[in-house]
Specification:
single chain; 236 residues; alpha/beta; Spore Coat Polysaccharide Biosynthesis Protein SpsA, Chain A; 9-stranded mixed sheet; two-stranded antiparallel ribbon; 24% strand; globular
Length: 236
């Protein structure tokens, strides 16, 4: 399985709230969050790891360069300020030559034990074109609500507004196979593409997108979220 990390944001909200370190280098458990995430992914059969880093954060690129040789799998680093989340997704899939790839944003905080169950389930799944982490825990400012068929766990739609029957939101963990990546290649050429529109397009084009529930995923957008994330992973 291949893995990828999107760390292409500029962290402006954290800076405005007094956090001096670039978001990927914020310490969560004695490690920068990007190091913790790499080490979590490294535990689950990595064939390669691709990371995209905002060129406005040279400290992050330098840090990745300093640790990349300590891992036994290739680490591809792209330093680029991308136009959108879709473009970031595209950048980290450029080295993908087939099989399965799991992509997550650097500020998506989950327990290693939960991710292990996800990775094993995706690795064993021979039917899905995409395999998304979802969660009932909502702390996102603009969550993307996910409609899931309870019998099959297939995702039937994505919505920006809540409804009375909501169970999950998108957790920022995207497992893709070759057909889903091919759709991304064509989607990124569209004017002003959005990541949530790409997710909708996966379903609308008839691909099988399966949901895997995580009990809790914390999204670090604000300074207060750092303490929430630290408490969450304390006993992981």
């Amino acid at each position: 399985m291949h893995y990828a990390i999107i760390a292409a944001g500029n962290g402006s909200r954290l800076r405005h709230e007094g956090v001096e370190a670039p978001k990927p280098l914020v310490d969560l458990d004695g490690r920068p969050m990007v190091r913790r995430l790499i080490e979590v992914l490294a535990s689950y059969k990595p064939e390669s790891l691709s990371i995209v880093v905002n060129e406005q954060m040279p400290e992050v690129a330098s840090y990745i360069e300093s640790i990349r040789d300590s891992f036994e799998f290739p680490v591809y680093l792209t330093v680029k300020t991308t136009a959108s989340g879709v473009h970031s997704l595209y950048e980290v899939t450029r080295h993908f030559a087939g099989g399965k790839i799991v992509i997550t944003t650097v500020d998506t905080i989950f327990l290693q034990s939960d991710f292990g169950r996800y990775a094993e389930a995706f690795d064993d799944d021979d039917d899905s074109d995409a395999f998304f982490g979802v969660t009932p825990f909502i702390d996102d400012e603009k969550p993307l609500y996910v409609d899931v068929d309870p019998a099959t766990q297939l995702i039937t739609g994505f919505r920006g507004e809540p409804s009375d029957h909501d169970r999950y939101i998108s957790g920022g963990i995207y497992g893709l196979t070759a057909p889903a990546v091919r759709l991304l290649d064509s989607f990124v050429a569209q004017p002003a593409p959005r990541l949530r529109d790409y997710q909708r397009a996966l379903v609308d084009t008839g691909l099988k997108v399966r949901a895997f529930p995580f009990p809790k995923i914390v999204d670090v957008d604000h300074a207060a979220d750092i303490d929430t994330a630290r408490q969450f992973i304390m006993n992981d």
